[in-house]
């Protein structure tokens, strides 16, 4: 299965116009990478730049996409997760419209339904943001609207 061919809305609970991830580039037990182009119609775009809230939402949705991928690869239902904590968040610059964001998730620890991850977002080789995020996974399943 080519991860890049999976429609992102099958992996995350958000729906347009609030989708901040285009596709999953790679995913395994420890590392995941997502990709997003900052489009002119992005709801977090402000004077041609993605606001800090949009960068953080991209990081959170990248974590959700990772969890969705892991569940899908295990043939398990895709469940909703919540950000339980965000620490050491630094945003070095705001991306401009049409720039491509690559967001990397490194899993630091997983215990039961809690996951601690280091997330960094870059444009090319430039890291523009980073944070430590704690995610709590629920038992609530994402409804696959394509099958309803």
Structure description:
The radius of gyration is 14 Å and the shape is globular. It is mainly beta and 148 residues long. The longest helix is centred in the middle third of the chain and has 22 residues, at 52-73. The protein is built from one helix and eight strands; from the N terminus they run ββββαββββ. It has one domain: Roll (Thiol Ester Dehydrase, Chain A). β1 (23-27) and β2 (31-37) form a beta hairpin.
Secondary structure layout plus pairing:
Blueprint: E1 23-27, E2 31-37, E3 45-46, E4 49-50, H1 52-73, E5 79-91, E6 100-111, E7 114-123, E8 126-141
Antiparallel strand pairs: 1-2, 2-6, 3-4, 5-8, 6-7, 7-8
Oligomer: single chain
Mean pLDDT, all residues? 93
Reading off the top of the CATH hierarchy, the class is best stated as Alpha Beta
Element pattern in H and E: EEEEHEEEE
Number of helical elements: 1
Class derived from helix and strand content = mainly beta
Order of strands, widest sheet? 1-2-6-7-8-5
What are the segments in which pLDDT stays under 50 over at least 5 consecutive residues? none
Primary descriptors:
8 strands; six-stranded antiparallel β-sheet; globular; mainly beta; two-stranded antiparallel ribbon; 148 residues; Thiol Ester Dehydrase, Chain A; 1 helix
């Amino acid at each position: 299965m080519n991860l890049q061919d999976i429609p992102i809305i099958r992996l995350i609970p958000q729906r347009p116009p609030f989708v901040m991830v285009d596709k999953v580039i790679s995913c395994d037990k420890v590392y995941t990478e997502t990709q997003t182009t900052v489009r002119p119609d992005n709801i977090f775009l402000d004077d041609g730049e993605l606001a800090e809230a949009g960068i953080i939402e991209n990081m959170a949705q990248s974590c959700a996409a990772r969890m969705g991928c892991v569940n899908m690869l295990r043939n398990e239902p895709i469940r909703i997760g919540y950000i339980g904590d965000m620490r050491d968040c630094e945003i070095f610059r705001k991306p401009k419209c049409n720039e491509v964001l690559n967001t990397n998730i490194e899993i630091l620890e997983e215990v039961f339904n809690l996951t601690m991850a280091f997330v960094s977002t870059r444009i090319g080789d430039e890291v523009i943001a980073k944070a430590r995020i704690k995610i709590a996974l629920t038992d609530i399943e994402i409804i696959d609207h394509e099958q309803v």
